[in-house]
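Q: Can I see a sequence and its folded structure?
A: Here is a first one.
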Amino acid sequence: MEPPFDSVHETWRSQLGSGPVEVADSKAVALARAAAVDASGFAALGDALSRQLRYLEATEAYGRSLELEPGNMHVYRRRCGRLLSTLRLNEARHGLLCCLVAGWDELDVRYRLGLCGYMSGVYGRAMEQFELCMPLGSDEMGIAAIYWHTLCALRSGAEPGLLAAYHIGMDVGHHTAYEKAVRVFCGEESLPDALAELGAEPDDLEYGITAYGLSVLLQSRGEAEESRRLAGSVLRRDSFWPGYAFLAAYSDKYGSR
């Protein structure tokens, strides 16, 4: 899968931690910065910064755009995404709720509200959001909702009720890594077999999704050391750090903002 960001980009160390921004402006950022004099210009700057994974600066640019054009929900929603991607979860949740009230795509918003809840440790609230996602989308988003709903259940001791919605042959699209974990959750594949297959996964995004899910399963079974080892490997394979599994592993270890 081709990353949706520039090859030269910021790491999580500056965006989630306290490290300095090390990436210079790309040509697109430089041009957008020079043209950022009105609402659309600042929005374009936010988009260009986002391509470099400079999410903290992008959030500021989107904020400047909204100061000039407060009612632009497209920019507002993009800002919410950048807040979630930098683990400013309370701000992201507030913004997403505003998007929901404003009539934004319900599946898009509820899925991310569920992620905010999961990464905040509010598992019951998150489960409600993932349950509401199920009738709103295709199998591709359904498998993602099942995955996160089940992790909430494993963490909280609740019933993983959405697992019953999984069946072999679901049209999961590009969400194959979610399915690999869900197959283990529901007993369609053994954990040792899944871990053996995982070791050969070359893609960091795919690896992170499956590995993080299995680490939570191991934790729920009392295998704390193996769970920590697997979660740690997600953080080491960080080339696709904006992925939600990486962010969840990071928030588990270091907390959110």
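Q: Show me another, different protein.
A: A second, unrelated one:
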Amino acid sequence: MLKEPIKNGIRILFDPEKEFSLLNKRSLEPVVWDYAIVLAASAIMAGIFNLFFSIAKAFYFDLLVDISIQYPRMINYSIGRSTSIIFLYLFAGTFLLFFLSLLLRLVFRNMKYTSLLKILMYSGMPMLLFGWFLANPFPLAIWSIFLIYTGVKNHKYMKIRKDSIEMRE
């Protein structure tokens, strides 16, 4: 369940032109499913990484600096902070993506909204796959902007009949 969406995300990062050209053939539902799985896994990994990093930092300070640490309180605080990071990832990955899509919809008026959403979900893969352990997400944001550009460039505009089932998108 987790392996295939992550493989798909890595393929997007290694060969974006090919994957964005294949994106035109995929419907919205599998793209959303892959994005949701990678988003949930990334949120959990960010929480776990933060928890272990906080415990390791406290243990380091306890050993090398003359500090008395109350471990039960510190672990309670770290668990709460890690849980907050998990919810921040889930919030940012859903609502901020939605608001970004609304802003970009003003720029790309001739593109279908579902196509724009699929491009944005594919473009968020660098942040989802690597954002949980980097201190500075700015290089990943640049990479995501490049992927948005690649996705829009490779997008194929299709004419759809008005009585077709494809009009639902």
